[in-house]
Write a structure and sequence with these properties.
mainly alpha; 47 helices; nucleus; Exportin-1/Importin-b-like
Length: 981
């Protein structure tokens, strides 16, 4: 073997030599006898044999064992076994222990040989392996590593094995149980005792092996006085106790019948309790406490699982299991209350199971209620933030606590489902007491009380989302008293951002409280707008409050009319568009671009609820307070938007004369102006539309302005994206007659460079317009459809980069949107547009729809294609205005498609979406039968079905179903295609 070439494998910087070395390694893997050379090299054990060479030798041997070894001759098998035995002896006796990756690779090879040989060619495998142990701790380490790899081969908990592999693994486990398990357990005991002082690492490894193998071994081999006494002793050793605790957890989670499981756990608990081990200890070693908590959690969960499996709950055995669970409640509470969150979180499953036990079967006694109330107090206390939590720069520790708190709330939710009155009562007392003296409290207590108040929104049932209406007057009174105190106690002035955020979140969650007691609206609105909210020193608070203020206004806007002028006087400085910032340069500003959108949205809602008081300046608002006409609303909306539109117009005029960096910034600001205008449209509704409020001209002018910005041809990608988003919203808000001319102007530029990306964004926009405008947009559709279709064909058929997932995804989306467009045209009175197309293009379109119905691997798109065909059949199959050759197209293409698609191997009849596509294919034939009658029946019977070689009874059943009612035919479709498949 060329040692120098092996060394070059680890020198990729020398490309030529590295390639030569890789070729050498490839030949070594593929040559049938090269493994022998590497095997001999491995056992030379010369000083020149460094770790890299050893590892490559082992890799070649591993490759051989995985492949050709299974069919090796007896001589080859004997040679490999003898040489590997020699190698194991070598690495078990050397003074300098081999590197861990060498030992691991050796163990993997021996485990692979075990799987191949143990039941036939090497029945003494385990006894040969056990003989190694007399060589000392290095041999014990290798032995345990091999057992670990064998366990991975036999009980792979992560890989889905084939049935043959599982059967073979089960046979090997049977052989081990018959021949070797007794000797193996003896060896484990010897290792635990022999090395507990001198080599704790090996002992911990042995604990791990016992935990792995116990799942398929006789439990009594481990659950006996000999082993348990050692494990208990190890639980008292700081170096061994974590591994011992994990081992005991594996022992108690072994699958067993309920009563034996309870007896095993109780006997083990008695031993641990007598040794003083089964309780939290005053120890800084939180890692061990976590292991101990997991052990307690496993004990509780296993007992609850055993109790759940008992069918009769009043038998002595079931009562004994329940008593065992009750006896562990104190332990549960102790660990749940631990100062370490990871220790507390380790018993969450036990906690949930304990609560669920009463929810499903149990009758609550006073003792149980006492335990559950104590549990509630612990949960409340554990809700508090740690003093070390870094709100300015949240890292991994903060993320872990946030996850812990979510789990805590989940447990609290389970408890509130069981005892809603108790949870409400205790939380009410805690919240009232804490908020009543919040100035004297630590911020953690204040935040926890507000967090509990927020949580009650999930825990306490609400009447259609309203906690302050419905038949439960006590609940309403209790919730209202907490909200009243929160709104009046001044806690909104707390300086800690966590408290501030929780306050405003509570306001948002219980916004309907302010409909009940509107006197609190003005103070809360003031808190939103001053230094406590939108002007808070914390960017996080400012951003959150911008969003929540918008929500608050949406809920209570009709009650804000008296103080709208004051609100606008505070909003005015925020309603300014900066022309010097881009999407990325928002640091150190009061509001981000997204935050400002929420402020404009809130302002537009206030304008619409009271146009006279909605002026954007306090003076104008006061002067106009007597007017509440639609004209006044339009005036104030114009006042709100005019500065925004003026900014966009000014920037657009300057674009041609600006430098590229300036153009990029200006384009982003113009897009922000579009987004603001877009967001203000949310102030309107189906009752108060743009037209009824005389605002449609304002938004039409804005749309023209933004389209003019696009048509400048500068920063087209950025501005085009903004225009598309803006037009989506304007389709919803404006009348189709107003929008169609604007679309004609925008489409010229949007389709100027019809790339894959541009078409993917443009098609949904046109689809939305066609869905709303219907026949009103027929002339517009005629003007763009040919160009649009040719552009789609060109984009779909352009060369694709097979390695580019984004490109492939965009192509799928484009085809899906293309099919959806024709579904819209066919189903919204726009089919006549298709008849104006060139006949060759129309034929291409129709064939593309057929291809989508049959070939496109997307059931949603297939469904869309069949819907298109059904509407075209409905429109043209009985009409003199149908395109030429359409009837022929129906029989040569549409009818076969209705059968070819469901018969595809990719057409999964068990998938709900695919079934919808199947039903739509049936609807096509149903509609065709309605239009053409017996002509279709005769075609199917005499021409098409004979090509499918169907049995006569299937043909007759299908045709009978086709002429029956829709429901009968629909039910028959799946049966038919399952039979044919």
């Amino acid at each position: 073997m060329d040692s120098q070439l092996v060394q070059l494998l680890f020198m990729p910087e020398n490309h030529q030599h590295h390639t030569q070395a890789l070729e050498f390694l490839h030949n070594a893997h593929t040559s049938p006898d090269s493994w022998q050379t590497f095997l001999v090299t491995l056992n030379t054990n010369t000083p020149q044999l460094d770790d890299k060479i050893k590892f490559v030798c082992l890799q070649v041997l591993e490759n051989y064992v995985k492949g050709a070894y299974k069919n090796a001759t007896t001589d080859s098998q004997t040679l490999l076994r003898q040489q590997l035995s020699q190698w194991m002896t070598t690495i078990s006796t050397v003074e300098q222990q081999e590197k861990v990756f060498i030992r691991n690779k050796t163990a993997q090879i021996l485990a692979l040989m075990f799987v191949v040989d143990y039941d036939v060619r090497w029945p003494t495998y385990m006894s040969d392996l056990l003989a190694l142990l007399r060589m000392g701790p290095q041999a014990a380490d290798l032995y345990l590593k091999i057992l670990k790899e064998i366990d991975l081969q036999l009980v792979d908990r992560e890989t889905l094995l084939t049935q043959a592999a599982m059967d073979h693994a089960n046979r090997l486990k049977d052989h081990l149980r018959e021949r070797a398990v007794g000797s193996m357990t003896d060896s484990w005991h010897d290792i635990l005792v022999q090395y507990e002082k001198s080599n704790p690492e090996v002992v911990c490894h042995c604990h791990e092996i016992i935990g792995s193998y116990i799942s398929w071994m006789d439990i009594t081999l481990i659950a006996n006085e000999r082993f348990v006494s050692v494990l208990v002793r190890h639980m008292q050793d700081p170096l061994l106790r974590e591994a011992a605790a994990e081992c005991l957890l594996e022992v108690i989670t072994k699958g067993m019948e309920p009563v034996p499981k309870m007896q095993l756990i109780e006997s083990l608990c008695n031993v641990l309790d007598s040794a003083g081990l089964l309780k939290p200890i005053d120890d800084d070693d939180s890692d061990f406490l976590v292991k101990l908590a997991k052990l307690v959690n496993g004990i509780g969960c296993q007992l609850i699982q055993a109790w759940n499996r008992m069918e009769k709950k009043e038998t002595p055995s079931c009562i004994a299991i329940r008593d065992a669970i009750e006896n562990k409640t104190v332990l549960l509470l102790q660990f749940l209350a631990s100062e370490y969150d990871d220790v507390s979180g380790a018993v969450f499953d036990f906690t949930r199971g304990y609560i669920q036990m009463f929810s499903v079967h149990g009758v609550l006694t006073d003792v149980h209620k006492g335990h559950l109330e104590n549990l509630l107090f612990i949960l409340i206390n554990k809700t508090k933030y740690d003093e070390s939590y870094n709100f300015d720069q949240e890292g991994e520790d903060e993320a872990i606590f946030n996850d812990y708190r979510k789990s805590l709330r989940s447990v609290l939710r389970n408890l509130s489902n069981l005892l809603p009155d108790l949870v409400l009562k205790v939380c009410h007392e805690y919240i009232m007491a804490t908020l009543g003296r919040w100035q004297a409290n630590n911020w953690r207590d204040t935040e926890a009380s507000l967090a509990l108040l927020y949580f009650l929104g999930e825990a306490v049932p609400a009447q259609q989302g309203n906690h302050f209406s419905g038949p439960f007057q006590l609940k309403i009174t209790t919730m209202a008293s907490m909200m009243r105190l929160m709104a009046t106690c001044g806690v909104s002035s707390h300086t800690h951002p966590a408290v501030t955020l929780q306050f405003f979140d509570c306001v948002s969650r219980y916004e309907k409280f302010f409909l009940l007691e509107p006197q609190h609206i003005a103070p809360v609105a003031e808190a939103y707008l001053d230094h406590r909210g939108i002007r808070n020193p914390s960017p996080r608070v400012r951003s959150r409050c911008s969003y929540l203020f918008c929500r608050f206004v949406r809920c209570v806007k009709h009650l804000m009319v008296p103080f709208i002028p004051d609100i606008f006087s505070q909003l005015q400085p925020l309603l300014v568009v900066s022309t010097t910032r881009s999407n990325t340069s928002t640091r150190d500003l009061l509001l981000t671009l997204d935050d400002q959108l929420f402020i404009y949205e809130a302002a537009s809602m206030l304008v619409m609820v009271n146009g006279s008081s909605g002026s954007t300046t306090a003076a104008t608002a006061t002067a106009a307070s007597s007017s509440n006409s639609n004209s006044a609303k339009c005036l104030h909306m114009t006042e709100l938007l005019s500065p925004v539109l003026a900014t966009a117009e000014r920037l657009a005029q300057a674009l041609p004369h600006s430098t590229p960096p300036q153009q990029a910034v200006a384009a982003n600001v113009i897009c922000h102006c579009m987004a603001i205008t877009n967001r203000t449209s949310k102030g309107f509704s189906s009752q108060t539309t743009m037209r009824t409020n005389n605002c449609f001209s304002l938004y039409i002018s804005a749309t023209k302005l933004f389209i003019d910005c696009l048509n400048l041809g500068i920063e087209r990608e950025t501005i085009g994206s903004g225009v598309r988003q803006f037009l989506h919203r304007m389709i919803v808000c404006l009348e189709p007659a107003d929008m169609i001319p604007l679309f004609a102007a925008a489409s010229q530029t949007l389709l100027l460079t019809p790339s894959l990306h541009h078409l993917t964004e443009y098609l949904p926009l046109i689809n939305q317009l066609a869905s709303k405008a219907k026949s009103l947009c027929s002339e517009f559709m005629k003007s763009i459809l040919s160009h649009l279709v040719y552009s789609v064909f060109a984009a779909v058929n352009s060369p694709a980069d097979g390695s580019d997932e984004d490109d492939a995804r965009q192509r799928r989306y484009l085809q899906r949107y293309y099919y959806a467009l024709f579904t819209t045209l066919a189903s919204h009175d726009l089919a006549p547009v298709l008849t104006t197309l060139d006949q060759q293009l129309l034929d291409q379109i129709l064939m593309s729809v057929i291809q989508g119905a049959v070939e496109f691997p997307d059931p949603s798109a297939q469904k869309s294609c069949f819907i298109t065909l059904r509407h075209l059949i409905k429109c043209w199959a009985g009409s003199d205005n149908a395109p030429s050759n359409f009837i022929s197209f129906l029989y040569t293409q549409v009818v076969p498609a209705c059968f070819l698609a469901p018969l595809k191997s990719t057409f999964n009849l068990e998938d709900a979406t695919t079934l919808q596509a199947l039903y739509e294919s049936g609807n096509c034939l149903k509609t065709l039968h309605d239009k053409r009658g017996d002509e279709l029946i005769n075609y199917l019977r005499n021409q098409y079905f004979p090509t499918m070689n169907l049995a006569p009874h299937l043909v007759n059943a299908y045709l009978n179903a086709l002429v029956a009612d829709d429901k009968f035919f629909r039910n028959h479709l799946k049966i038919f295609f399952e039979s044919v498949k």
